[in-house]
Each structure stands twice: as C-alpha cells, then as structure tokens.
Amino acid sequence: MNVGFFQTNPVFGKKTDNIQNAITEIRGLNADLVILPELFNTGYQFVSKEEAFSLAEQVPEGQTTQALIRLAEEKQVHIVAGLVEREGEYCYNSAVLVGPDGYIGCYRKLHLFSDEKLWFEPGNTGLKVYDIGQARIGIMVCFDWFFPEVARSLALKGADIICHPANLILPYCPHAMITRCIENRVFAITANRTGVERRSKDTLAFIGTSQIVGTKGEILYRASADQEESMVIEIDPNVACDKYITPVNHLFNDRRVEFD
Ligand code: ACM
C-alpha cells in the first residue's frame, strides 16, 4: 500500500488557491492514501469566530470536500484533509475522509489547542475506524496527539494507520508520535504545514517535519522543517495486526484495565 502526505504552506484565506495547490500535487503522486494538514485549505490563525465561520464549509456539500471527492475518484486514492466545518451556527476543526467512491466520513477534533477554543466547538463525532480496503484507518487532528488515549482508542478499535492532519507549533509531536506508534503497534502519518502566520499579536511558526512512522517507531520518512513537499512510501499495513511484543506479551491482552 502506498501512503503519504503533502506538507503545505497555505496562504491564509485563499481557499481556492490552497485547494488547487493540493490537487496539483496529489495528481502527481502514485498513492493509495494521502494525508493533508489540518485546516489545509484556509490557514490556521483566525482572528474571530465570524472569520472562521466565513471560511467554514458544510461537509460534504462544501467546495473543499467536493473538490477532494472529484480528485479521489480521478486518482483512485483515499484522502484525509483538515478543514473548518460549519454545522448550523457552530464551527468544528474537522478532517474529512474521501475515497474513489466518494465521501466516507468526518472527524471533529476532540482536543482544541489554545485560541482554537475561541472559534471552534470541541469535537463530538467520536473516534472511528474506517476500513478502506487495504487498511483500517483512524483519524486524529494535531493536538489530539497530546492525549495518548486518542491513539490507544483508535488502535483498540482496530486502526492499522493513524492519519494525523496537523498544524504543529510545539516541537514535541514528531518525537511523541514515535512512542504512540510503539505503544500501539500502528503506523502514523502526520501531515504538518510550514510557514509563519502573524495575523494577531501572536506569531505562529509551524514546524514542518511531517512524518511517516512504522509500528516499531521507525521513522520511515521525516520531511524538512520549512519546505512544501510530498512523500509517498510503500508499507504493509498488516504488520500492525501483530500485537505480540514477545511471544508471551500481547499489547492489548496484557493491559491491567481493572487497575485504571
Ligand atoms: C494544534 O493543535 N494545531 C497545535
């Protein structure tokens, strides 16, 4: 299975351009699964709830999801991509999953980071695992990594690959995801962005270093800190089904949940 990411540097608010940039890049890839960053189509640093709402879209009817659906069909690829979702008067920091047969699902970020709490509602979709044929995939968004129970929950639900759209600012995540993979025996694909946003008093510098990590914590690929780039590699997602650490230690069966 060929899996990968596109590490972007979106221009804030230029949705059509950001979407087109992703379409052009993904058209050139030979992939079964591609992850795009969190909020890949809008940029990250909103200055008001009204602004977030004005850039938000209904899922799956909105411009971005519809464009990704067409691309997924054309390229016979599954795509996970972060965007601002609007439902009624509320906005969510969401990630959609689309595939060759169309729209599949949407995850709303559970753990909102910093000012995100001013624009978005905390997610309410729960953590789901999707069987996309070649693998079972789970989705979490950026800061969800800080809560190890998210990756554990996805792994317990059967995820082979954790798809992780991100807009990372803190430096720890690329290291932490190695641990998340070791402790759950899953693959993880973190699609981060690069660049700087300075739309309010805070300057946000995004750390790039998107990565694909194997089930034993191997860094299969790590991107640069500051370049827009894509990468696709071949993995065997079935490796994630083996939860034996030693012949007598099973990652899930050895848990002592009665003492939690
Ligand atoms: C983040 O959750 N975007 C840091």
Short structural description:
This protein is an alpha/beta fold and 260 residues long. The protein has helices at 15-27, 49-55, 63-75, 116-119, 148-156, 173-184, and strands at residues 2-7, 33-35, 78-87, 90-99, 102-108, 129-131, 136-139, 161-165, 187-191, 196-197, 204-205, 211-213, 219-222, 229-234, 244-246, 249-250. Helices cover 22% and strands 29% of the residues.
Describe the structure.
This protein has 260 residues and is α/β, with parallel strands linked by helices. It has a single domain, classed as Nitrilase/N-carbamoyl-D-aminoacid amidohydrolase. It is 22% helix and 29% strand. The protein has a six-stranded mixed β-sheet. A six-stranded mixed β-sheet has the order 6-7-8-9-12-13, with helices on one face. The chain has a two-stranded antiparallel sheet with strand order 10-11. Helix 5 packs parallel to helix 6. The chain binds acetamide. Acetamide (ACM) binds next to loops.
Number of strands: 16
Write the element-wise H/E pattern from the N-terminal end onward: EHEHHEEEHEEHEHEEEEEEEE
CATH class: Alpha Beta
**Multimeric state:** single chain
- The unreliable regions are none
**Helix amount:** 10-25%
CATH topology call: Nitrilase/N-carbamoyl-D-aminoacid amidohydrolase
Q: Give the CATH superfamily.
A: Carbon-nitrogen hydrolase
- CATH architecture title: 4-Layer Sandwich
Global geometry: globular
**Which hetero ligands occur in this complex?**
acetamide
The secondary structure category is alpha/beta
Number of domains: 1
Q: Output the number of helix runs.
A: 6
Largest sheet: 6 strands, mixed
Amino-to-carboxy terminus distance? 37 Å
